[in-house]
Each structure stands twice: as C-alpha cells, then as structure tokens.
Specification:
8-stranded mixed beta sheet; about 425 residues; alpha/beta; homotrimer; about 25% strand; about 35% helix
Chain lengths: ~425, ~425, ~425
C-alpha cells in the first residue's frame, strides 16, 4: 500500500489540532466542515438538546469564547487561548475574584506528571475549573485571582457526521470514530483522520461489495444517540464494524474484541493482525473503553471490534497535553490505516469456497506449479494446496487464512487465482 | 461472616471425638443424638441388616464392648479403651493366646510413620486385628499374648441422619457428610460439624429459596443405601450438591469437580473459590474418593462437587491417629464453612438478569456513580458496568462473576442494587 | 506381542530393496508378486494409461533397461545398474554425447549432503537426468560424456495391489501403503512390509469384527485412481484408516492427524500412542505429505490418520541413497507394526458400555478385588473403578482410555472382564 496517505493524514491532524472540540458545540462543526471537504458525501446532523436517547438525553450545547485566570497584576497565568486543555470541558460561565485557597478546588493537575496539563471534563454536573501543570500550580503565589469562563451552556444541539457509501449489497460494514476531545492527537484526531482516509479509499473502490456506514460522533452520548435512531437497520445489515480510535502512534498494535469474541469482525481482525502485527496486544471486551461499550451492550450486540495502535488508557500521555502532534507520526497513522484497510479487504473477499474436483487437482497442467523450484515457490505451492485442502464450503477465507497461518492478502490472491482456473467455486 | 461459628464447631468436634464410630453401631447413634440437639429437625433412620441397596446389602451391625492385647504378665499393652483406632474396624470377636509370631499377621503399623496408629477396617471379610505404632510394635518381646476382642457382629441396622429444610421452591440443594470413622478429626468430624453449622444457618434464613436435603451417613454404603431409596426425587429436584469432608485443617483449600465438570455446582464453586481461596487446588473426578463416587456414577449423575480444605489421601496424618484435634482449628473449620456457605448464597441468588435499557444506562442520574472518584470507586463502577454488560439474559450470576473476575458476593450485591434501581430484571 | 515379526519384516525389505520401482512399471509388478506369496488373497490390478481419475490421467508406463554416463575412455562413471537412484525417475530415452557444461543441467546432487545420491523424479515433464553425489560431481573433469538412458515411456498401465479381508461387519478399516520408490528403506519399503505383516495378522484373527481394505499403490496418482473407482463404498463403510509410511527406523514415533482431527481414527490413534509412545510427535494435517492428502481432501473426507516412526521430510536421509537398509531395523519395524496393530485391536473392541448397576458395584463379592493389596493392585482397582465410572453409554473405550489415562490394551481387558461379570453391557 502507498505510504503517501500517512503524510496526508498527518497533515489533516495538524490542521484540526487547534480546534476546541467537546461533545457538542462549534468545534465539532468546524471539524466536520474540514472533513466534508475531504469526503463530499459526508452529511452533518444536528440533534436538539433534550432529545431522549435510550436512558440518556442530549445535553445542552457548550461553547466557549474565552477563559483565563488573571493574577492581581492582570497577568493571564492560565489561558484557554494558549491551550484549550486549560479549561475543564463543559465549564459553566464564571467571572469571579478568589483567593488562591478558594481557587484550588477548581484547579486540576497531575502530581506524577508535573509537566502535563490534564484533560478533565464535567459534562453532567454544573461545575467550572481549570487544568494546568503541577509545576505551574506549585509556583502560584498566595493572593487573589480573577477566574473568567466566558462560555455558554444552553439549548442547542449535538452534531455528528455520517457518510453512507452504497455497495452492491445491502449488508453493511460499519466504521465509528469520535470527535469530542480538544487538542489531543492519538486519542482524538488519529481516529477521524484514519477514518477519513479509509472512507476516501472505500469510495474509490470500483467493485465495492458492501455498503459502508461511517460515523463521526461524540463518544458515548453520540453513539447512544446514533444507535437510538438506527439500531434496527444496523442490526439487520451490519456484518462487521470497527471503532477507529488511537490509531496514530507508532509504538504498539492492539486488537480489542467484541463481547462474544467470535463475530466475523473478530475473526477477520484476528486473521489480519496475526500477519500485519504478529506482536499486537489482544484485549478482551473487559478492557473496553470507547464506543464499543455501546455497540456490544446486551440487545445492541453489533459485531464490532477495535483495531488500535497504542490503546487509550495504556500510555502515559493519554488524556493530557502530552498527547500532541509529536506523539503521532505519518508511519503510525499509516499502520493503523493499513490494518483496518486489510480487514475491510478481507471482508470484501471473504467467501467460502468449495473445490470443484475431488482429491488434489493437478496443478502442473494448469501452469500453477512454479517452473523454478525455490524455497519461496515451495511455500507458495504449500499455501495453494492448503487453501484447496480447507475449501470444503464450511470455512470462509478468514477462517482458512487463520487455520493455515497464511497472510489473508495472499489467501485472497490464491483463492481468486484458483477460482479463475476453475478449481474453486463459491459455496 | 462471624468467626464465632469456628469456635463453636471446634467445641462440637471435641465433644464428639472420643466416640467410636463405624459404618454401623451405637457410635453412629451417639453422634446423631448429639447433633440432634443442635438440629432439632434431624430425623434418625435405621435400615435393617440384609436390606438390599443396588448391588449391595446392608451389613451386620458391629459393636464393641472392649478389646485389648495383654502380655503374659497381664499388662494391657494395646487397649481399645485408650484409643479406638487400636482395633481394626469390624473385627470379629476373639479371645485367644498367641505367640508373638502368631500375633504378627493381626497387627498393623506404619514403618514410615513410626509414631502413628493406622486406621484399618475390614468390613466385608471375617477378620480381627489391632493397630499400633511401629515404635511400640518393634519393642514387643517374644512371648505369649492374650488377644481379646469383645465385639458383636450381628443383625441390626445401619443408622443415618436426615434433615429436610423446606424452601419456597421444590428444587433442592443437597449436602452430604459422613459419620463412620472412630476418633479422627479432619477426615471425619470436620464434615459433620461444618454441615451442622451450615444447617443451622440455612434454617435461620428467612427468605430461603430452595429446599435443603442434608444427610449424615456412613461413607459408601450409606450413600448407596440412601440413593437406593431417594434417587428419583433427588434426580428430579437437585440443582447442586456438596460432599462435606475434610473441611477442618487450615493448610489448603481444594475443589473436587463432578464427573462432567460443568454442572451448576461446579460453576458456582469455581466462581466462589476463585475469590475465597485463589490458590485452592483443583481436582478432577478422577481424584474422587468419598461419596461423590456414588453421586456422580453413571445413571445417578447428581450435580455434586466437594469443597474441602486439605483433601483426604493427600496429607500425611490421613487415616492415622495423627488426624486428631490438633490438626483441625477453629479457623480451619470456619474457612471450610465460609466457602460452602458462600456457594449456597450464590445459588440462592443465582439469577440470570437482563438489562432494561439499551446501551449503557446513565448511572449518574440514579446516584450510582460515586461522588468522590478514588481507585476503589473506579473498580466499583467497573464492576457495575461489567455486570450490566454481561446481563444479556443468557448468563447467570455465577457465570458473570467468573467471566468478569468478580467476587460473587459483590456480584450479588451489585445485581440486586441494579435490579432495585430498575436497570436489571430477571430473565 | 511377538518380536519375531520384526526380523521377518526386515528380511522382506532386504529382498525387495534392489527392485527399481516407480509409479508405474515392472518394478511395481515384481514387488507385488513377492508380496502375493505372503498374502495369498492379494489381487493385482492394472489401470491403462490414459484412464481419467478425477482431475488426473493415468500416465504412460515407464520401464528402464539400463542407464549410464560414460566418459571419453568408456568408463561408466554413473550407472543405474549400481544404484537405481542414479537415474531421474521417468527419464526419457537419450543417447547423446555432451560436454561437461552441457551435461551439468541434467545432473542432480546435494551440496549439503556431499555423500548422498538424491532421489529425483519428473513424472509429468519430458526430461532426463542423473543423480550423483556432490563429491563425485565435483571431481568430474572437463571433457565429453556419453549419456545413455535406455528407457521406455509408453502406453501401458498403472499397477496396484488390493486385499479385502472380510469380517462380520460390512464396516471397514482401511490400510493404504505405497509402492513407487526405487531402493529406499524407511520412506518406501517399511510401509509395504509392515502392511503385509498386519494383513497376515488380521487374516489370522478368528473373531474379526470389521472388514479390511488394504491397498498397495503408487503414491498420489495411485490413491487418486483408487478413490475415483471406490469412493462411494469407502465413504459408506470406512470407520477408520491408516496411511502406512515411514514405519521402519527406530528413532521417533509420529502421529499425523486427519483434516478435522477428531475422527475415530484420530481418537483411537491418540489413545494408543499416548501409552505406546508417550513422547511421540503430533503432526496436524498441515504437515501432511503422503496419501492422506487425498483421503482427507474436501468431499473425500475419509477418517484416515498416519502413525509413523520418523516422518518423511523430517530426517536427513529422506529421499536420498542414505535411506537404505541400515536406516531401518527389525525393532524399528516392530514398533511401527505394534502401534498400528494396537490401534486396530482397539477399533475391534471399541464398544461403548453402560454399567448395569447404579452406584459403584461391590467388587469384593465378585472376586474382582485383589486379595493381596499392593501398589500395583491399587492401580488395577482404580483403573477398574474408572472404567465403570465413565461407562455411561456415551463414551467408547477409546474415549475412556484417553480420559482416564489408561493403556487401551488394559482398558479392553478390564471392560471385557466387567462385561463377563455382568457389570457392563454394550450400549
């Protein structure tokens, strides 16, 4: 696969980095406007505050014009304009003078990561607060401070993006990524930019078999809102889905399984990851933390897994200002993109085949034997014989590739070559 | 759980220790008379000698007035009155003078445990014999010895105790323990005293769901006799059962599985033992040795496991005079009691639940989120979310606790709290 | 089992060693003529060249009168008469003078095994060639060489042997071995001689339960040809089968499983090998290389495994002149014979039994308890109780032996003794 897309994705992440996103508000709209240019079919939806969604209700919309803490001499010691992580997400408006002692309960920092600004939100309680480095906090002199949050928290709407790419079949592959964090890279922007690149590649596929449902939503409330409106059709049509999150750094690969652990999505991702990243980390549904929490919940039960680079909650920069553009790389994004793309390619070609002859066919008379016998050619013949041996109509290519320990990409090539030669037919 | 019951059980064992029990006879009756005072509902049954029971027949009843070996000077060198292990169980009457050489085939000792009197029986052959320490045996001088066994082996009956504690449902939980060994502690008295304490606790349960069938029988012949009279109703009603044996020392925990290994009793005991004693030893049915041999036999197939402390046959004092009151402790008995009681508690509450909402519910609006976020509270929320995530109506709490690695006691609490808040309903 | 058969088999292999076999031709006929004397019922079949068999066609028949390379002084430096491995199998006739340089592409040797003549064939391309040691090849001086292959490659037939030994039941056990390699011992003659010894033993069984289908065929094309004519009846009747190959050296034991891995043949062979050769190597169907490739192919799906000593392709002498009569031994052949014979014995006695009593039977009253209690007798009683405990009508002896870790030979003895005593009946 071309590695150019890695650099392209990194550029998009760079462009989107400064925007202050939350689960609602104009930051989401700006982000979707940017992505719409890359995916002309993307539609933007607004769900009004107060709309019920299963056990939840769409919250008020939050927007921020500015927020800062000034000292008595008018110096802005903490300023949302410099880093949007400084403001606790969903902070209520405030304009107050406080002593340092009075201010402290509104401050958040990380004693064990003194140079990191933590990411803190308080969506469902009426609060305000500021986040700063422990190092800065420790140096605040006693005195009076002016805390200003110029925010609005008012009826509005929850905004999300949706792209439906039709295929030959009604059956769908589902991609879900979130847009709801301010300036963070791996645990925010890697998801939408990899999903965008995947959407562009899917759109370009001439012989696309499946329909694709791709959504850009705020985490948790967004997936709940989306499911509450689309669950029936998704349950009817979804054959496999992927939560696209934390796909930007270049340290590890991770595969988080569905609740049952044996859906088509699990089987395909397992077959792909075994070869794409043999040393990837396997996580069970017990380790879930993103929108798979909703997709796998009882009664929803969609076949959704998450292929990641380094998983949320498992790297030190997670949910801090250190999760910035230096943490993700073009190669990291490319690797995440490739892993999910290979999974989609396997899904698109994942037929169960049956041999058309009894016993092994004579490869030689069909020119399928390499004329020059080398170590590589022996492995190729072995792979071909194994694809034939297990094509009994009961196993799809994902199963066969897994069982015979073959790279799924090669399994697809071999099966299509054998089908073309008349030795395999679709079961 | 209160630890007072440990001391209480130890006292009962101390009281019962001197009685000479065997598979029949007055020792069993004395033991049951003592236990009846602790369990007023206990009924005592007598099954006449000669009664057929499947492939077996109730043997003659054995009673002993006295037994000893005197030397030529009339000194009682071995005396049943000093330790009832000195007499081989079911010894026929004898009153004979023998040379040391003639006496030797009637003596039993343990060369490798020179200070232990072995426990030996000969229920179904006409024999007599004495057991003594190797140390004493080695010092017997040549000469003539007077062996006297003043026993009766005559038609009588086999005696057992039965306690039925009715519950709201006909379905039964079964407890089986044995009373058939003379003065031994872990491999005899621990079983009946723990079973008695459990029976007293079960009787005290106001909202008891199941009916309890609790029997105190001689090992092997007793369970065969009991099954031959009650198999149909037990097969119809028993949901889980426990052989209560070797539950008194404080060294190890053991779980011996049923023949199939996957009955409700296995699943419940596995979930409990994982947390009650994470380092317990797992035994398969191939390691069986007590009445589970009958309960798990083909065609009987009752769902019975055995939760033990240190298993019979696996500790050096087993079946010797060293298995005495110093081997068991109040804490040891308490631990055995607690493990089985927790299993019963899980059975009583082991419903399969379904979530009442789609997607994760909003815990916050129901006050289920801890207001102060601490490490412990995060684990509590995680446990709650996991109980919800796996409550899909197909798994009972035993399965869920096992799968999400949660202490079943906590799983019960969480499920009942969620049910009370309307978030779970019984499937 | 008598070890005399090992020496007998070794003698047969010695007699058959010099014959030049290939997938067709007079070497196969000579070999079958020799074996016919040992197995009077063996029938020899000829299938004409050009006969279609699934995806294949019976090739022309190949025979060799002689073949050599002479140098300019008329010295035969390589001569088929000295070792038939010197000639590439299915070499076309040739009579040509060539320079060393022109000769080189027709020579085959093994740089890493300089003293071994490799075994090379070219059945389906029109080629000729000679095989020699690397050591000899390196010493060939420049000059002109006279290459002569006096062979015929012409319409004829493919020859195979078949022996049907009828039993009380129509159901069949299948043995397949190959006759198609020139002078090699483990990977050729061990198969037919062990199969012959097994056939003679099977013929001698008075109370033979199953029918036996035993074939001596050229590898690959032979099994394909045979299956194309007998597949329906074999699918209907075959309960288990064995490819008999590489059963002559005394270094290792190997068990190669069927494609599904859980057929009766797999279960029986697993139970036998666990005790016959606890350190045997387990191979999956992915390691297949002989006629199990056909027997296990989709749509054929016969329950066939391969019990071997050191597996083809996994020992250094394989497919070279070093796989000679020094590589196999009477003890090696005997071990291979014994392993397959024990598997057949288990199949013949592999009933599912049910206990006739509920609960454990009283062994004592039937004389089944050893009167002298020893360590060995305790194990014997344990084995007997375990056979009873698992005889619930759902498990055959292969399953039970495997589960209770008992030598299948002992399991058969115990089950038959218990059946005779009326404690077990066939399910």
């Amino acid at each position: 696969m071309s590695t150019a897309v890695g650099s392209e994705m990194y550029q998009w992440a760079t462009d989107l980095f400064p925007i202050c996103r939350s689960i609602t508000g104009n930051g989401v709209r700006q982000t979707l406007a940017y992505l719409s240019k890359l995916m002309p079919g993307l539609t933007v939806h607004e769900v009004p505050s107060g709309t019920p969604a299963f056990d939840w209700t769409v919250p008020k919309e939050w927007n921020v014009r500015g927020a800062y803490i000034e000292d008595e001499r008018g110096r802005r010691i903490v300023d949302f304009a410099r880093n949007n992580l400084h403001l606790v997400g969903y902070s209520e408006p405030v304009d107050r003078w406080l002593t340092l002692e009075e201010l402290q309960p509104h401050l958040h920092s990380l004693p064990e990561q003194p140079y990191a600004i933590p990411y803190v939100t308080s969506y469902y309680d009426g609060r305000w607060g500021f986040c700063l480095t422990q190092e800065q906090r420790d140096q605040l002199p006693p005195g009076r401070y002016h805390a200003v949050v110029d925010s609005t928290l008012a009826p509005g709407s929850l905004t999300y993006g949706e792209l439906i790419i039709p295929g030959k079949e009604e059956k769908e592959i589902f991609l879900s990524t979130y847009i709801c964090h301010p300036s963070m890279a791996n645990n925010e922007l890697s998801g939408p930019v990899v999903t965008t690149a995947l959407a562009r590649w899917i759109t370009s596929l001439a012989d696309r078999r499946f329909t694709y449902r791709i959504i850009f939503i705020p985490e948790t409330i967004g997936s709940i809102v989306y499911l509450s409106a689309h669950l029936d059709e998704m349950k009817r049509n979804t054959i496999a889905g992927f939560v696209v999150s934390c796909v930007g750094d270049d340290r590890a690969y991770s595969l988080l399984h569905s609740r049952s652990g044996d859906t088509l999505a699990d089987r395909v991702a397992t077959a792909v990851m075994k070869h794409h990243a043999p040393d990837h980390i396997e996580y069970s549904y017990l380790d879930r933390g993103s929108d798979e929490r909703q997709y796998g919940s009882p009664g929803v039960d969609l076949p959704v897994v998450s292929i990641m680079r380094t998983k949320y909650n498992s790297y030190p920069e997670y949910h801090t200002s250190l999760d910035d553009l230096t943490l993700i790389t073009p190669a990291g994004l490319q690797g995440g993109y490739d892993a999910i793309r290979k999974s989609i390619e396997l899904l698109e070609h994942n037929h169960a085949y049956k041999t058309t002859t009894l016993c092994e066919p004579q490869l030689g008379k069909r020119g399928l034997y390499p004329t020059l016998s080398t170590k590589g050619s022996a492995a190729a013949v072995r792979a071909m014989m194994n694809v034939l041996a297990y094509s009994d109509g009961t196993r799809d290519l994902a199963d066969i590739a897994q069982h015979i320990d073959l790279n799924p990409t090669e399994a697809i090539e071999i099966a299509e070559q054998l089908a073309q030669k008349g030795l395999l037919s679709r079961a």
